[in-house]
Structure prediction request, 380 residues.
Amino acid sequence: MTALMQCLAVRAMLASFLAAAAAHQLCGQAHDWMLGPFEKPKGVNPVITPNSVSTFLSPMNDSVVRWEQHATFNPAAVVRNGKVYVLYRAEDASGELKIGHHTSRLGLAESVDGLRFTRRSTPVLYPDKDAQSTYEWTGGVEDPRVVMSEDGMYVLTYTQWNRDIPRLAVATSRDLVSWTKHGPAFAKTDSAKYLKMESKSGAILTRVEGDRLIATRVNGKYWMYFNVPEILIATSENLVDWTVLEDVNGKPLRVVSPRPGYFDSWLVEAGPPAVLTPRGIVLIYNAGNSEQYGDPSLPHRVYTGGQALFDPQNPVKLVARLPEPFIKPTESYERTGQYVEGTTFVEGLVPFNGRWYLYYGTADSRVGVAVWNPRRGRPR
Prediction:
């Protein structure tokens, strides 16, 4: 073998090694960057369940409805004045007996320990006789995520569902009770190019300050991971009006996609607000498993939770990804309800009194909580 051939062989071996190392990290084998492990506390779950007593005068038809009788699930969470507040999706029993065919409203519950909640008797966000009725009647408002802005404003992303097109929308509040609706997140940018695109699941990038997750700028802009079955990304100057980032072909830029052979082979969907950590940007996401080409150890279309790591200076650059779900349905209440395949659908995440609390929807029917104590370290 000539010296040139030996050199080329060594370079090929080195390139192969580096590629394998990169793939190894991207699959998340070295996952000291992840949040968790999270444990489901015994004796408290599910923390919010349907309530057939609560009533509300619905502006849609001026009739009294039992607004949280059918299901209470898919929660957002925030810490305010030393308490955990959870905004949860509540469905009444109207409509057809199938998923997505009831009317949804958002309820508000509070807790001094993050585990036991007291809730308001009426919803705080709902389809009303307002400028958003075209987008919100009659399916309602769904699947919230919430962050705090620099000046103390609460910024809510949620899905408007008119039973035609689901649209990601934004609302703001100073007290979590009275909300100002700003309409579809993409209505005012790019000549409303994405107004008719199906969109949902807005996870705004945040930093941690004490018990608060505060929307934070990177390279002068706010960032939001969103959508399903692939996760896209958008930027904003004001947290209300968002611009979808596009690839060289003018299509929405995909930053996380389903992976054949893994737990997230069917779909991926943005979860709670993304968190800027010393290791990078951690995005918790929801994952659906495919029966044909997914993880054979998991049920078809089961929803579990994954985590992805992005470059802290470049929120579109995927650095690592867990090879297995960090949370999945293991309890009876996570497989009993509207979605019998099972869900641990994560949407709410807060640091609180030295621990992290993760709130999730169970089988599209109830709210569960899982807790991580960073002081315990990680299992080895």
